[in-house]
Amino acid sequence: GAVVSQHPSWVICKSGTSVKIECRSLDFQATTMFWYRQFPKQSLMLMATSNEGSKATYEQGVEKDKFLINHASLTLSTLTVTSAHPEDSSFYICSARDSRRASYNEQFFGPGTRLTVL
Amino acid sequence: RKEVEQDPGPFNVPEGATVAFNCTYSNSASQSFFWYRQDCRKEPKLLMSVYSSGNEDGRFTAQLNRASQYISLLIRDSKLSDSATYLCVVNGATGKLIFGQGTTLQVKP
Question: Which residues pair with B56 in a beta bridge?
């Protein structure tokens, strides 16, 4: 149980285009999902917290108009990188939390999406 | 100062060795602590939670010292398959997970 999927697993796009990444909880409902970004040899950095049915909460320094998050259902959150540039190339990982589980703080991670912007 | 600090390593050890990783955190209000393992170009996977009384899972032992705000992970009888980056993770004040930079372990034959 507690499987999280992400799609696509990797994407290469031209500068200026927008890219949508999907995060799905496959066998549980996730009222809260998280989006992280990881640059090479660095740690995961939280970008935003996505709450079902409400606006996402962005971390300081993350542009909400550039990284659009939609959490329209209890099993799906999407991150859209708008007008992507080479500096947005990174490993984007989502995680989901199932509030019904005993270990409430445990997050289940998706396999990540590797974005390369040319 | 980073909220969660780890020595990035790398730690190069022979098979069978015992290796220990340390981690310090800055927020004394943190309540939950974890060790995650991350393989190259993969997502992090939960290795074990860390409890105040210390806990063991096979060859892995985790300990927490709240007074010193210090967490440790001990790996005994290292295997080649233990080679990975080990992330110290702390539940922050707002309930968010704060990740350390990670400590890289290379186990050599």
Answer: B61
Query: What distance in Å separates residue A83's CA from the closest CA in chain B?
Result: 25
3-state SS assignment for residue B75: strand
The amino acid that residue B35 corresponds to is W
CB contact (8 A) between residue A112 and residue B42: yes
Of B32, B90, B68, B44, which is closest to residue A112 (Cα–Cα)? B44
Residue B51 contacts A, CB cutoff 8 Å: no
Q: What is the pLDDT along chain A (118 residues), one digit of tens a residue?
A: 689 999 999 999 999 999 999 999 998 888 889 999 999 888 899 999 998 888 899 999 999 999 999 988 889 999 999 999 999 999 999 999 887 765 556 788 999 999 999 9
Cβ pair A105:B95 closer than 8 A: yes
